[in-house]
Design brief:
Layout: H1 6-26, E1 38-41, H2 48-55, E2 61-65, H3 74-78, H4 94-104, H5 119-124, E3 127-132, H6 139-145, E4 152-155, H7 158-168, H8 187-190, H9 193-196, H10 202-218, E5 228-231, H11 232-237, H12 239-248, H13 256-261, H14 278-282, H15 284-288, H16 291-303
Parallel strand pairs: 1-3, 1-4, 2-3, 4-5
Helix pairs in contact: 7-10, 10-16
Length: about 325
C-alpha cells in the first residue's frame, strides 16, 4: 500500500483538528446519563475493539476510546497516573475520581477519545461506552466508587494476544525486562517485578505483561460477580450464549445488529487474519508462534499462578453458561 501523499496527510490533519475542536465544544453539553455508562476492560490486542463494536449496537450510544492512553489523553498523566495504574479498593484519590466523573458524563472529549463516534452520534447519545485496554487494575476500585451497569472484562488467550501484538509491531521498541517506575499505589505492580526479571524474550515479556494485567482480577473474590467476565474464545465459538450472558447483566435483550456483526472482524484487525472460520481464527497463533515461543509464554503465565489457558485454543474453564455445543 502506497504511503499517503503530503496533501492527503494535510487533509487528515485538518479533518482531525476540526473534529477535535467540535468535540471539545460539545464537551459538557451531551445528554448522556453517567450512571448508564458501559465500561469494557481488556488487554491490548485482546479483542476489545470487536466487543465495543458489538456493544455499540445498543441504540443511542457513543464510544470513548481508551482514555488511559497517557500520551493521547493527558489529563490522567497530569495527576500522576501510570500506564497500568492501580488504585486499591477503599483508597481515595479525589482527582482521579473527578476525572472519571468527567469522562462518564461526556465532559472529557477530543478527536482521539471520540475516534469511533461522530459528533452527531455523541449529541444523540444517552449513554457512553468506554473502552479500556490499560484499566484492568482499576476495575475493582471503579465498581466500588461508581454505581454503573456491570462492567465487562474480556479475556483472550495470552498466546493469541502476543501473536497479534508481534504482528502489529508496536511493542517491539520496549526493553525485554519490564521496569516499574515509582508512582502512586505502585505496590501491586512492583510485586510482580521478580517475574518480570525472568523474561529474556519478546514473548516472555508480553506474557508477563498479560499476566500482570489479569492475575489481580482472576483471583479477586468479586470476579464475574461485580463485573461480567467473558472470554474472547467463547465469544467467537458461542457468540449468542456469551452475548446473552453479557446483555442480561444489563437487563437488556441482545440487539439484532449485534448478532449480525458477531462474525465480522473489528476495525483494528490486521489484514490476513482469518475471521470467518471461528476455529481457524482461534488457532492462528499456533501457526505464527514456534513451539519454543509458546512454551516460554505459557511458562511465564503459569509462573504467575494463572492456569486459565494452556496449549489449547480454548480456556480451561468456561465463563459462558448453559449447554454449549461441542
Amino acid at each position: 500500500m502506497a504511503s499517503p501523499s503530503l496533501l492527503d496527510r494535510a487533509r487528515t490533519r485538518f479533518t482531525n483538528a476540526l473534529k477535535d475542536l467540535g468535540a471539545r465544544r460539545i464537551a459538557g453539553h451531551l445528554q448522556v446519563d453517567p450512571a448508564k455508562a458501559i465500561l469494557i476492560f481488556g488487554a491490548p490486542r485482546g479483542g476489545s475493539t470487536w466487543l465495543e463494536e458489538l456493544v455499540r449496537t445498543i441504540p443511542s450510544t457513543a464510544t470513548i476510546w481508551e482514555p488511559l492512553d497517557l500520551e493521547n489523553n493527558p489529563p490522567f498523566a497530569r495527576i500522576g497516573f501510570w500506564w497500568r495504574q492501580h488504585i486499591p479498593e477503599g483508597e481515595q484519590w479525589p482527582e482521579a475520581e473527578a476525572l472519571f466523573q468527567d469522562l462518564l458524563a461526556g465532559r472529557m472529549l477530543s478527536n482521539y477519545l471520540t475516534r469511533t463516534s461522530t459528533l452527531g452520534q455523541l449529541r444523540a447519545a444517552d449513554r457512553l461506552v468506554v473502552k479500556f485496554i490499560r484499566g484492568n487494575l482499576l476495575l475493582p476500585w471503579m465498581v466500588q466508587r461508581f454505581p454503573l451497569p456491570k462492567p465487562v472484562l474480556l479475556i483472550r488467550h495470552p498466546c493469541a494476544v502476543i501473536s497479534s501484538q508481534k504482528k502489529r509491531g508496536t511493542w517491539d521498541k520496549f526493553p525485554v525486562v519490564i521496569e516499574t517506575p515509582p508512582h502512586r499505589f505502585d505496590a501491586l505492580y512492583r510485586s510482580y517485578q521478580p517475574y518480570f526479571n525472568t523474561a529474556s524474550t519478546f514473548e516472555e515479556r508480553q506474557a508477563a505483561s498479560w499476566a500482570a494485567d489479569h492475575k489481580y482480577l482472576l483471583e479477586h473474590p468479586l470476579n464475574d460477580v461485580a463485573w461480567t467476565t467473558i472470554t474472547y474464545e467463547e465469544l467467537v465459538v458461542y457468540p449468542e450464549a456469551t452475548l446473552r450472558k453479557l446483555f442480561s447483566g444489563w437487563g437488556m435483550e441482545i440487539p439484532a445488529k449485534a448478532l449480525d456483526l458477531v462474525r465480522k472482524p473489528s476495525s483494528t484487525v490486521v489484514e490476513g487474519s482469518r475471521v470467518h472460520d471461528p476455529h481457524a481464527q482461534l488457532s492462528l497463533w499456533q501457526s505464527r508462534m514456534t513451539p519454543d515461543e509458546i512454551q516460554r509464554a505459557l511458562a511465564m503465565v503459569h509462573r504467575f499462578g494463572i492456569d486459565l489457558y494452556d496449549e489449547g485454543v480454548m480456556p480451561t474453564r468456561s465463563f459462558t453458561p448453559g449447554d454449549l455445543p461441542s
